[in-house]
Amino acid sequence: MNITATSLLLLLASSTEVFGDTIFYVTKYEAKADGNTDITQNLRFNFITNSMVKDITSRDSKQFQMNLLGCKNLTFYNVGISAPEVSINTDGIHIGRSSGFNITNSTVETGDDCVSIGDGSEQINIQSVTCGPGYGISVGSLGKCPNEEPVVGISVKNCTFTPRMA
């Protein structure tokens, strides 16, 4: 699912009544590891401003579970993300060239980074997040490309980390 260039978005997946899955399984949408029909990211947020994503769960994506690009003042609250511990390149949330991103009261269980922060990201606040098993929170893959922007103002508070077993 791609969400692009939206202001004042509130994405919820909660209800007192259940009308269907509030969990997005890529295999229900014919994702296969055949190189042609892969669905490699469950949710992609491009250029979202002044918005909140609350009470959703993403499971078993290949590669990034949720990918943010060019977002400003976006908050994730009570977000659940999971992928098998043995899966590779399954970052929970990847943040690129975004500012004012907050994630609070959430759980990310993947075989890779809980949160990965790419170039041009600033004022990223990660609080009360349970990460693991996996590699935790990373500022990574910087310096590979020319003209990369610096990463500034990362805050991590009251988080719990469980290391990967293998």
From TrEMBL:
Where is this gene product found?
Secreted, Cell wall
Its chief place of residence is secreted
Q: Name one GO molecular function term.
A: polygalacturonase activity
Q: Which UniProt keywords apply?
A: Cell wall, Cell wall biogenesis/degradation, Glycosidase, Hydrolase, Secreted, Signal
The residue range of the signal peptide is 1-20
- Gene3D superfamilies linked: Single-stranded right-handed beta-helix, Pectin lyase-like
**A single GO BP:** cell wall organization
Which protein family is it in? Belongs to the glycosyl hydrolase 28 family.
Q: Identify this protein by name.
A: Exopolygalacturonase
Originating species: Vitis vinifera
